[in-house]
């Protein structure tokens, strides 16, 4: 199982949450950014439906697999 970490950081004259190097929109306060990160972290845990997916790897090969909609990551909000 994977883990998604949301970190609250100063960004673009305000505050944002960042995960894996990607920033959210900018919020006017640390509290607002943290609240948004908590909401997003909770949404990550909501199960979905099973699905067939296809994706291309870095070496150019295509793969198809069935994914379990209940295989959700753990989440953490820091900051």
UniProtKB/TrEMBL annotation:
Database matches in Pfam families: DUF2188
Protein name, UniProt field: DUF2188 domain-containing protein
């Amino acid at each position: 199982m994977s883990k998604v970490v949301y970190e609250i950081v100063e960004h673009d004259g305000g505050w944002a949450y960042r995960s894996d190097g990607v920033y959210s929109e900018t919020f006017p306060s640390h509290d607002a950014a943290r609240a948004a990160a908590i909401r997003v972290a909770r949404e990550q845990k909501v199960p979905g439906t099973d699905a067939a997916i296809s994706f291309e790897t870095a070496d150019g090969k295509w793969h198809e697999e069935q994914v379990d909609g209940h295989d959700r990551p753990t989440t953490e909000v820091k900051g």
